[in-house]
Amino acid sequence: MQVTETLAEGLKREIKIVVPATELDSRLSARLEELKGQVKLNGFRPGKVPTAHLRRLYGKSAMAEIVQNILNETARKTIEERGERAAMQPNFVLPEDESEAGEVLEGKKDLAYTMTYEVLPSFELGDFAGIKIDRPVAEISDAEVDAEVAKLARDSADFQPKDGEAADGDRVTISYVGKIDGEPFEGGADENGQVTIGSGRFIPGFEEQLVGAKVGEERVLNVSFPEEYGAAHLAGKAATFDVVVKEVSAPVEATLDDEWAKKFGLESLEKLRETMREQMQGQLGSVTRTKIKRQLLDKLDELHAFELPPTMVEQEFQNVWGQVTQDLERSGRTFADEGTTEDDAKADYRKIAERRVRLGLVLSEIGEKANVQVTDEEVQRALVDRIRQFPGQEKQVYDFYKSNPEALSSLRAPIFEEKVVDHVLTLADITDRTVSREELLKEDEDAEAKA
Description:
By secondary structure, this protein is an alpha+beta fold. The chain has helices at 21-36, 51-81, 98-105, 142-155, 258-261, 269-303, 310-331, 342-369, 376-388, 394-402, 405-427, 437-450; strands spanning 2-9, 12-19, 91-93, 111-118, 132-137, 158-161, 171-180, 183-196, 218-224, 238-252, 429-434.
């Protein structure tokens, strides 16, 4: 086998490989000997089929299998011997001429092909020890816990039918038909819809127009779907709802005591408050984690500049761009609505793709040098969490991941990333800054809006 480098430009490599016909024929003969003891043909005893007959029947298909094995073996061995790491799977350019390809499959002609691939870049890690990180920390106050407990009481309140007009906080049972331009639209009707006035769960303006309604009353509500409404065919549209009020119920004020807390599986009101505080603090902790991780990634991005494998960047860009265009199509919006053009948006999202690839390589290098490991138990826990997201389809999801190494790797990757981030944070210079809950959440909303 002859291996010749024909291109080494930046991260791009091209290798010409020639496999002699004699080697192909030797491999074919060995494969046919294996088949001799496996195939059953009429007129021949098992294991007694002449090799020449097998060659006529199975020669080309067996050689095609051999060629595929050679491609895989050669790619792995060549890259390994050159001390390189391929960024993606190599591409192969095989003979296109039918007669030439036919001769190769018959073992009469050398197999000559080219293998192209990109290598992962070599780079020095920047000095990330001592990176300065500002960590905003918010503590949950007693008043905030009280407010959350009161909200839970309102959301879980029992209701009793009442006479008179519907007021804020009441639950109104209605039948309704939604219309756009006078025509009913799909999904816009219900015979027994329940609306709690003031809950904010319906389209803006819907609940408010039920204040003062009585049982048996008919009303026409005028509303507009939000511009960012999930259903593209309804987003931004003006609509009417023909409503018939069937029942008006008032909330029964709960007594916030130990007995009430037992409704939620907790032995006392104090235990409920503790649980509520832990949940709220955990949510704020997740926000804080997101903020310091974002700062860290920004710092690492600033510290590193090196050539990126074009194919990796292109693949990442296509993933990002596909999601962007899908979201726009779903919402019925255009790039003009977003205050940009398609070309400008592509340029921006390509930079995002480059950043993701660069940071991925940097985090991988840090993890490798720090010997960061992801255990099988951690992957298994991630798989269990993933399976729980698909109730009723547990077996199908489990089988999919177990039979698909790439899918299983997608569970391992975020675990590895978080562990590398944790490692770097142990070396960073972190300064805690106490903020209010509102400030912490508002900062996060502002960052999302900017992104």
